[in-house]
Write a structure and sequence with these properties.
The chain is of the alpha+beta class. Helices cover about 10% and strands about 25% of the residues. A hairpin with a 5-residue loop joins strand 19 and strand 20.
């Protein structure tokens, strides 16, 4: 790419320099042809697969194009300066020195830093030059974001430095690390070994010869030994290739051997640095998840011809990734940990979509969830919409229930509870109704029935704020007046009794009826139908969050008017929480016998039961109600419940 450029810059009056340039550029083309495997890997992944189906990389280019290069000094910055230069013939005999003037204010006499990054074809005879008699200089390029750097090519107009160092920063100039040291004598200058003798050494004398006096190049490959990685996106390769800033410290000038011929010339006129080209090869850094990049927000472009061929830094991400460098998964694709693509195998490592049932636009990755799933799924949905909640927005919120005629992914899948404001047993200060999230059935006040709690149960009357009262009749009564009904023809024998296994949202509020709001049911047996309970889904059992699980023998039951008491003997304690429960005699308080006018759950004296219920921390009572699990004791049942408590309820 730069061969014609260099030849054009070598003066025709100096055939030796021109010949040397041709020979050296032949070596440069050899270098480019046998570049490291990583650079070849970056080039190959840039062509892999249509539409970036595999690991991919944007095309490489000159990072210096269109960007500002900084130096400490510039020839003729304050006033016109005289400078001289020497060249040699092909047989290394010296030519007379040539002197000229420089002035930064006059375009024809100016040699600014931008000349190092202009087009080598359109402006072949431009260069940057330092002020005269400068001992140390610096050429620096600051990038607006992180890029991948592969190699540097510098072509000097002046003799190459006797000592210099190439450095990079990965944190926008806060800290710097050396890429390579260059010196005519590595041991004397830097106390380092020379890679000409010791392969992989950090210093080299390969590009520090005084000849040629003009047109000498310095070449550095970021992945030259000992740095060579097959996967260009591995963490090790990134540590070597990523840059935000690049600078060359020119530490010691070198005199052209031909300068001694004209001793009458002032030495300071020859004492300067001059560079034709500063070519920084690299690409946009996208972790293998993009094949092209666009302009970075806030970029300040240099209005030069090279700006048309700038390498931009904001990745157009593929593989469901996002970010300036595709360094994270897109908003709804965090079901697995983000990974860079594999540049060796071409595996893209696409981000996986979270399972949010169409009710969320964002999710996040949870390592705890990932490990608990056996490294299969770690996505947790954020800000569930459409009245849903849960890790996958998989259930309706409190106050809503599943509409069975709509798919759960539909926006209106969760319908508001339609509980009757008078007959439903919702807490008085709760602004939203609570119902069974699976079917919409509402929890009813004592003696109230119906899916939405809008009428009295058979055998009850007086629908009102406290529910329905038991009929004082041998049979049923009028639900409005309470008058007894003597004939069977007028009785509507419906049985809309609340299920013994209601499933509520986890957010359902827990509350109790006051004693004066209930009615004793021991004198009114048979007011509800007690269903036999079956131990079903372990998750449902755990979701009930029982405070205690015990094996008891029923001794006796007593009606206390405002409440009932059941004397039991605790034979075995399978679970307890805050209240200490010991084996021996204890009292159970069947809440539903009084609050619901119902003698469920059934506790017959003389029999043994497995009872799972709740604690009243204020009174220290053990409570059983319609949500409790009560079943005749069997050793197999006890073992099964104990296994559920250990395995599923932790």
């Amino acid at each position: 790419m730069c061969r014609g450029n260099l030849l054009a810059r070598v003066p025709h009056s100096c055939p030796s320099a021109r010949s040397a340039a041709m020979e050296n550029w032949g070596l440069l083309f050899l270098f480019l042809g046998c570049c490291s495997s990583l650079v070849a890997g970056l080039s190959s992944v840039a062509r892999l697969g249509l539409h970036c189906e595999k690991a991919c990389n944007p095309r490489m280019g000159n990072l210096a194009n269109g960007r500002r290069l900084w130096t400490v000094t510039t020839c003729g910055y304050n006033a016109t300066e005289l400078y001289c230069e020497s060249t040699e013939n092909p047989d290394l005999t010296c030519r007379p020195p040539v002197c000229n003037k420089c002035n930064a204010a006059h375009p024809r006499l100016a040699h600014p830093p931008s000349a190092m990054a202009d087009s080598s074809f359109r402006s072949p005879r431009t260069w940057w030059q330092s002020a005269n008699d400068v001992h140390r200089e610096r050429v620096q390029m600051d990038l607006e974001t992180t890029y991948y750097f592969t190699h540097l090519i510098m072509v000097f107009k002046s003799p190459r430095p006797a000592a210099m160092v190439l450095e990079r920063s990965q944190d926008f100039g806060i800290t710097w690390k050396p890429f390579k040291y260059f010196s005519v004598n590595c041991s004397a200058t830097f106390a380092m070994e020379d890679d000409v003798a010791v392969k992989g050494a950090l210093c080299t004398s390969r590009y520090s010869s005084a000849f040629p006096c003009s047109g000498g190049e310095v070449i550095y490959r970021a992945m030259a030994p000992p740095y060579s990685y097959e996967d260009p996106y591995s963490q090790e390769a990134q540590e070597q290739l990523k840059i935000t800033n690049l600078r060359v410290q020119l530490l010691k000038r070198q005199t052209c051997p031909c300068q001694d011929v004209r001793l009458e010339d002032k030495p300071q006129h020859f004492a300067h640095y001059a560079i034709y080209d500063f070519i920084v090869k690299g690409s946009c850094f996208c972790n293998g998840h993009a094949d092209h990049c666009v302009e970075y927000d806030g970029l300040r472009k240099v209005h030069e011809t090279g700006a048309l061929h700038m390498v931009h830094g904001r990745c157009m991400c593929k593989h469901n990734t996002a970010g300036e460098h595709c360094q994270r998964c897109a908003s709804l694709y965090n079901d697995q940990p983000w990974r860079a693509a594999n540049g060796k195998t071409g595996t893209p490592h696409e981000c996986k979509k979270c399972r949010c049932n169409g009710h969320a636009e964002r999710c996040h990755f949870s390592m705890d969830v990932w490990l608990a799933s056996g490294n299969r799924s770690g996505g947790v949905c954020d800000e569930c919409q459409h009245n849903t909640e849960g890790q996958h927005c998989q259930r309706c919120k409190a106050g809503f229930h599943r509409g069975l005629r709509r798919p759960f992914s539909a926006p209106d899948a969760c319908q508001p509870c339609a509980c009757h404001p008078v007959g439903s047993a919702n807490p008085p200060f709760n602004t939203s109704m609570s119902c069974d999230s699976s079917n919409g059935d509402c929890p009813c006040k004592p003696g109230v029935a119906g899916p939405i709690c809008d009428k009295c149960m058979v055998g009850y009357w007086g629908f009102g704020d406290y529910g329905c009262r038991p009929c004082d009749c041998a049979g049923s009564c009028d639900p409005l007046t309470g008058d007894c009904i003597t004939g069977n023809a007028d009785i509507d024998w419906y049985r809309e009794i609340p299920d013994l296994h209601p499933v509520f949202n986890e957010s359902e509020p827990a509350w109790d009826w006051e004693d004066e709001q209930g009615f004793s049911a021991l004198r009114h047996s048979g007011k509800c139908e007690c269903k036999e309970q079956v131990l079903g889904n372990p998750k449902l059992f755990c979701a009930m969050q029982y405070s205690f699980v015990v094996k008891v023998k029923i001794l006796s039951a007593h009606d206390k008017g405002s409440h009932a008491e059941v004397n039991v003997k605790i034979r075995k304690v399978l679970k307890m929480t805050k209240l200490k429960i010991r084996r021996g005699k204890r009292i159970l308080y069947p809440e539903s016998w009084t609050s619901r006018g119902c003698t469920c759950p059934i506790l017959n004296p003389g029999l043994q039961y497995l009872v799972a219920g709740y604690e009243d921390m204020k009174s220290g009572r053990l409570i059983v109600n319609m949500k409790s699990f009560v079943h005749l004791w069997k050793p197999t049942l006890g073992r099964k419940v104990l296994e559920i408590l250990k395995s599923n309820c932790n």
